[in-house]
Amino acid sequence: MNASKSVQDVQFKPRRIGHGNFFVSDLERSMAYYEHVFGLQVVFREPGIGAGFLSNGNSHHDVGLIEIPKKTLIGRDGQVQVPVKEERKPGLNHIGLEMESEAHLVAAYERAMAAGAPVHRTVDHTIAYSVYMFDPDGYYLEFYADSQDDWRAIMEEKSEQLLTGDWTPDPAVASDVPKYVVETERRTVEGAPLQPHRAARASLFVRDLATSIDFYADIVGLTLVAGSAADGYAVFAGTVGSWDLGLFQVGEDATTPRMHHFGFELSSPIELETVMERLRAAGARVEGQIVHATKQSVCVRDPDGILFEFYFQQSRDAAALQNPPKDPAFLV
Questions:
Q1: Does CATH number 1.10.238.10 belong to domain 5-166?
Q2: Over its length of 332 residues, how does the chain's per-residue pLDDT go in tens digits?
Q3: Residue limits of CATH 3.10.180.10 in the chain
Q4: By CB distance 3.0 to 4.6 Å, which of 48, 95, 167, 192 could disulfide with 39?
Q5: Dihedrals φ, ψ of 139, to 5°?
Q6: pTM higher than 0.90, yes or no?
Q7: Would you tell me which CATH number, out of the four given (3.10.180.10, 3.40.190.10, 3.30.70.60, 3.50.4.10), belongs to the domain 198-331?
Q8: Alpha-carbon distance 81 to 130, whole Å?
């Protein structure tokens, strides 16, 4: 992307990846698996659109799940949430990027509109305001700012109701007070083999890495911390400084970019062999484990085959990425 100055100046500058949202073939099966294997607590269900949300307490949700719809899903105010598509399969729906405040989100939205950036829609999710757009490969991105101090109270009040409606960004009323959780009220699921700290990163294959690097730097506003188009990979961080996103050049034999995996960070080192045994005993689809200078992790598939990595970050030494795991997409 040979970005114009105005596009270069869009830069939403999210804090971090806050959640992943995924299409699944059987919502109830997946909700149970994510709770009892992945260790995420169910916090809300939205039957009107066949969705469920799970968290360990650091945010209103680390994961959103939507059962592949047989018809277009409509939220409040006639808001089209998910259009029906016959070819839709289990996998990534969107990546949620947490913003500093509503005012930061609205200011970035205005810059994006002025620059002609690919804004798709704006919505009020009751607990957050959001701006959605597609990246050059069609990955769906949500930039959101929490709008409530106590998301648990709102979710209890709105139990099983539709959350999403229309929102018109207005700089005159947008609050500049951060609403995201600072002191995490972490909750665990007793007996679950995994107890993640938070949703933390995504690893994506892209068609044209140089174009994607420009997009994620100039429009999304993430910071490139390692890699380049020449290297075949790029690692980006949000303003918090964690490694949030890995991009990898798709192979010549692949025609469609896809998410490689989604990652959850663990708060402490893990006994890999013990965790692997517990996962297998729980009937989990264990893909393997990784021990690298930057992290140790275990890789598990959900019931639909979507790949997740649960990792403890041992260092963020970008130089260590030059000695990658066997599969380079597990750099980040």
A1: no
A2: 444 557 888 999 999 999 999 999 999 999 999 999 999 999 999 999 999 999 988 899 999 999 998 888 888 888 888 888 877 899 999 999 999 999 999 999 999 999 999 999 999 999 999 999 999 999 999 999 999 989 989 999 999 999 999 999 999 999 999 999 887 677 889 999 999 999 999 999 999 999 999 999 999 999 999 999 999 999 999 999 999 999 999 876 666 778 999 999 998 888 888 999 999 999 999 998 998 888 999 999 999 999 999 999 988 888 887 766 667 677 77
A3: 5-166, 198-331
A4: 192
A5: -65, 135
A6: yes
A7: 3.10.180.10
A8: 12
Going by the DSSP 8-state scheme, the letter that residue 69 receives in this structure is P
The encoded tokens of residue 249 equal 């050049």
Strand partners, 77: none
Residue type, 60: H
- For residue 77, give both structure tokens: 């105010």
For residue 134, what are its two tokens?
Answer: 């597609």
